[in-house]
Each structure stands twice: as C-alpha cells, then as structure tokens.
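In response to reviewer comment 3 from the previous cycle, which asked for concrete evidence that the modeling workflow produces usable outputs, we include below a single protein chain processed end to end. The sequence was submitted unchanged, and the resulting structure tokens are shown without manual editing.
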Amino acid sequence: MTSSGVHDRLARWREREATLYRVVPYGGLALGTLLALVAPAPHGLGATPTIAVAVAAGCWVTWFVTLHPDWQSRRRLMAVYYAGLITFAAALVAASPWYGLFAWIGYIHAFPVLPSRWRIAGVTATAVLIATSQGGGLAIAISHWPLWLLLVLFNLVVAGSVTWFAMIAEQEDAKRKRLMAELGDANRQLTETISENAGLHAQLLTQAREAGVLDERQRMAREIHDTLAQGLTGIITQLEAAEQTRDRSADWRRHVDNALALARESLTEARRSVRAVRPETLETSRLPDALVELGGRWSALNGVRAEVATTGTPRPLHPEIEVTLLRAAQEALANVARHAAASRVGLTLSYMTDVVTLDVRDDGTGFELTDQPLPRESGSGYGLTAMRQRVTRVGGELAVESEPGGGTAISASVPALPGGAG
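The workflow returned the following structure tokens.
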C-alpha cells in the first residue's frame, strides 16, 4: 500500500472516530433512559426527574461537543465540560443503574479533552460510576460495599491498564512524529545535494516505517493477548466464583486472593511486554522449571491436574525460542480452561538434536477440525492465531489434533537454537 493510501485510511479512521465521539453519548443516554423507564430501579428517582436530568445531560453534550467541535483544543473549557459530564453521569447513575451505559462515555472523552495529568482522575471517577452501576445502584452499593469495592478495583485494573497502554502509545506516537520531522528536515537537505536519489530515499523510508509500525502492532497485539486478555479472563472467573461462594468465607477469600494475585501478575507482565522484556519466570529459572511452575499455578486456579514432563537433555535456548514455547503453553492451558472441560492435562517438553517440541494434550470435549489451518476460538479467534504467528515467526510449526469427545492435542516444534545465538 502506498503512503498516500495509508494517510487516506488514517484520515477516514479519524473522521469515523470523531463521528463516534459525538454520536455515542446520545446512544448511551437514550438506551439508559429507555431501560430506566421500562425497568425502573426500586430506590431511584421518579420518571419525570430522571428524564429532566437526562435531557439536561444531552443538552450539555450537545453544546460543548456537537455544536462547538472546535472547542476541543481549549483544554480549560473542556475540563469544565468533562466535570459537568461526570456530574450528570453521577446523578443519572444515582437515579437508575441503567445509566451506566451513559457513564462509560467518561472513558472515551477523557483522552481528547483532558490533559494527561488529569486523565487518571477522570478514568478513576468513571470507574467508580461504572462499578456503582454494575453493583445495582447507589443503595445496593452502600449496603454491599465489599462487593462494590471489588467492582471498583476490577474496573480500575481494566480501565487503568488500557489508559496506561494508550498513554504509552501516545508518547511513542509523539516521539515518532518528532523523529519523522527531523528525518524530513534531513531529507530536504539531502534533496538539495542529491536530488536524483530523493524519490528512492523517501520510498525506502516510508516502507521501513510502515514495516516497523506493523511489526510493533503485531508484537503488542500478541503480548496484550498473552498478558492482559488471559489475566483479565482469569480475574473474571475468580470474581464470579467468589460471588457464588459469598456464604463460605474461606472459599470467598481464596477466590478474591486469586483474583488480586492475577491482577498483580498481569500488570507486571504488561509492563514487561511494553518494554519488550522476556517474561519474569524465564529471567529467574530455566524453561522446564518455568513450565512446571506454570502448570502448578494453572492447576491451583482451575482445579484440573496438569502433569509436566521433560524428555531429552535440557539446555539453554535462544531467548525468543523459550518465550515462544512458554507463551504457547500459556495459550494452550487457557484454551483448556475456557473450552475443554477436561479432567487432566499433560505438557511434554522434548529436547532433540535440531528441534524442541512442546506437546499439550487434554482429555476434554475436543472439537471438529475444519479445512482451516487452525480452529477459531469463540469470541475473538485470536489465541490460536497468535500462537501460530509466534511459532512461525521463529521458523517452527504448529499442529492441532482433535475430535469431538476425544480431547485435543497441540504440538509446537521450533528450531533448537542455542542460547548464544543472536
């Protein structure tokens, strides 16, 4: 794709984003009002006051966002707008928890209108309102405040992680823009002396930048899936289990502690992913030990026995090879937990002369293999795709065998590159 095509796509995306920014608040407001009227909250306001506040909130958004889009660059004025938005959202959530559909607009509008140092405060306030809505309203949140605090914590972890990644991406984008500006000046000076090479130089520079951006996006997509997505799935599972065991204090505390541990671990791994640092377990132990530790943690969280075995003579491998095998094991176990309903899982790491193979087998429900290279997961379909991308990227192969009722076997074979390889 040419550079002009990329710029056109970015311009169209920004236009859609601006339209979404202006339209979505009204959708959340209208849907929240409809639900509040159809299924009113027991302790909420009456229909007339609720509609009056909703209309006022819509007028507030219309005046600042729809009628005056050029005000977005005026930070102080838009800070006043955002404070009013959160105030209206708080009043509506207090009137009916259905207005959480409107309150989450605070996440979307925090970035365009607030300075970077105030975004965390805006996201935090929005997370509190969302947690109150999810908890069933203000009255229920007060009477069940421990559960409300857990919901606040969960929303803060999710929103804070996304906000942190977005701020990092924004900083990197600013650095890239400064770098491109500096390179542009250098190119103009070079054009004056070597005009015949200007076109080729610009073309190579554009291709290198696009390739670098694409590679980084793919890396971040894989890392976010392997850290945040899997971690948040585990947190949700533990919190749901905690809700089901509220009458059993010991079980409730165990699930809550598991959720907190997963949140801390996911945040640590996310930070390491942004810095392109290998997983912490591989920094402190060898790959076979890291797999044993992974299997033990997974078994404790899911109540399914996971047996880890190593064949051949273990030896240090290239860091990228070890990360690929560890991530493949994490994704395979995550798929077993989500889909397989298995009672036993076996992981075998085999060191051979030229290749190292990781086999993951379960006795779960299995699935019907299609003509596709890999089956799609329900929901995103990204997990096995990311696993295949990782394995292929280091010159390996990924094979999947399964049938309904016959369990699933995943085999990742990668070159046995030594640890000293570049």
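The CA atoms of residues 240 and 363 lie 25 Å apart. We consider this sufficient to address the reviewer's concern, and the full set will be provided in the supplementary archive.
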